[in-house]
Design goal:
By secondary structure, the chain is an alpha+beta fold. It is built from 8 helices and 7 strands; from the N terminus they run E-H-H-H-E-E-H-H-E-H-E-H-E-H-E. It has one domain: 3-Layer(aba) Sandwich (Aminopeptidase), CATH 3.40.630.30. Strand 2 and strand 3 form a beta hairpin. The N and C termini lie far apart (38 Å).
Length: 206
């Protein structure tokens, strides 16, 4: 029987926010850290300011963080980056580069309608993979957000995640050629997937 429990990030301590940022960095920013020669722990500590805590959810076992995930909507994304803070902490040039690279990924407004939610930043700690953490997070996010459609993005080389999302009922509706920086990491395409919540009825307010 699973002993996982999920907490919204704004209900947790500053230490938990820092651990969430470290997991995010380990899973999504390793190549950026390597190319800019920034130690991952320094990047995580600096980047922790950007998390919109009421958008992020953490899967835990006891006090141990096993996985993270976020939901963005028409009303806002899950990160807010401070360019001046990044430059102050990482240096003017490197901080500006990180801001420009990540702003497009994490802050750019999404073409969503009021009845759509965008699931992002699903990540599992290396020691917890294969235990159902991502499945638990996905089911929680879809079960606690009353939207008609859920959209997510996954890179083509992440075949395990694609299979998981297909198992959860997501289907591909769009593919987009990866940009230069992502291609350096061996990624060819961004894959966009969608799942409809058949139990949700769209009202006139949406």
């Amino acid at each position: 029987m699973s002993t996982f429990h999920i907490q919204r990030l704004d209900s947790l301590s500053n230490e938990a926010v820092e651990k969430t940022a470290q997991l995010f960095t380990d899973c999504f920013m390793q190549e950026l850290c390597t190319s800019l020669r920034i130690p991952p722990h320094s990047m995580a500590k600096t980047f922790s300011h950007s998390f919109v805590k009421d958008h992020y959810f953490v899967c835990m076992e006891g006090e141990t963080i096993l996985g993270i995930g976020a939901v963005s909507t028409l009303h806002g994304r899950s990160h807010r980056l401070d360019k001046n803070w990044l430059r102050r902490e990482l240096g003017y040039i490197r901080g500006g580069f990180v801001y420009n690279a990540m702003r497009e990924e994490l802050e750019h407004p999404l073409p969503l309608t009021a009845h759509q939610a965008y699931i992002e930043s699903i990540a599992t700690a290396e020691h917890a993979r294969g235990k159902g953490v991502a499945t638990t997070l996905m089911n929680f996010l879809m079960g606690t957000h009353s939207h008609h459609e859920f959209i997510l993005e996954v890179m083509d080389r992440n075949e395990k995640a694609i299979r998981l999302y297909e198992h959860l009922g997501f289907t591909v509706f769009r593919k987009k050629k990866a940009g230069f920086f992502l291609r350096l990491g061996g990624i060819r395409e961004r894959i966009y997937m969608l799942k409809r919540n058949e139990n949700h009825t769209i009202t006139g307010n949406e």
